[in-house]
Amino acid sequence: APDWHNLTPKTLFSQIRHELKAYWGYELNAENMDAVIEKHSLQKISLLRSFALKVGLQIMLREYDFDNKNKASFSGSDIMNIFPVVKHINPRASDAYNFYTTGQNKIQAGAVTEGHELIAEALNLLNNVYGAMHGEIAQCLRMVARLCYVTGEHRDAMAYQQKAVLMSERVNGIDHPYTITEYSHLALYCFANGQVSTALKLLYRARYLALLVTGENHPEMALLDSNIALILHAVGEYELSLRFAERALAVTNASHGPRSLKAAVARHLLARTLSCLGDFRTALQHEKETYSIYKQLLGEKHEKTRESSECLRHLTQQAVVLQKRLAEAYAR
């Protein structure tokens, strides 16, 4: 009988551990896959997706029960197709690439108009070389949209970004990391154009896909949650905004550290939301921590530190006013 007939989950896991140690030099200190998943807080559906992509497996679209120990999660009929995974390097349109990188350098140097012209020329060349649909064209469209947004042309930014989203969906797939990024950028431009409900729908869509691909604890999830919290805050949905802001802070603390600039930004958003809900004491605690991080990392004279100091003063005043009103109400 072939060797794979006698393969058990235990021997397969042993082979995986050996391969990891021999090829990557990584020691997997666990007895089985369930222990690895628990230790690293992995998501089984994300692992399945990643495995299928890497080995060229197409499986049936249905709800898989991974937690039932008495029943196999998969059957032979779940495997729909097998594709060869070909490793190759895509040919590059060198002239367009040179225009694109030069444009990026110009923008970083502060010459936005020149950079914009070069990237528009790169987009034109890419269309001539690749035709209507290509991954590099989608990236170029995203850059043009961002430039339009920076220069205040919000309507043009949204139009270019819509093209980038449609192209990325077609070329990369709907759950590709690039497509998720395109959704979040389009959400920002929709919000800038006053289309709040569309912006929220796009961010929820991006969050759902990111959750499927990476799980809850990825740094990108913190960014998406912060953006959702900001939009909900802007439309007065403070209770829901608070939930997303708290989640964003927890993930940021875990991935970047509690004393990072990203943590300071997350705390500032949380403080603003809590103050809108009237919880000035907790808001003050978060803003004090924000001020402390900015002061340590950026110095007292930095714009962010001064802004946080002003916010602290404002929150303290609001807390005093609220305390006085409560005292007057009790006195009556």
UniProtKB/TrEMBL annotation:
Residues 3-66 form the CLU central domain. It holds the Pfam family eIF3_p135. Transmembrane segments: none annotated. SUPFAM superfamilies: TPR-like. One of its GO terms (cellular component) is cytoplasm. InterPro entries: CLU-central (IPR033646), CLU_prot (IPR027523), TPR-like_helical_dom_sf (IPR011990). It comes from the Eukaryota. Keywords: Cytoplasm. GO terms for biological process: intracellular distribution of mitochondria. GO terms for molecular function: mRNA binding. This is CLU central domain-containing protein.
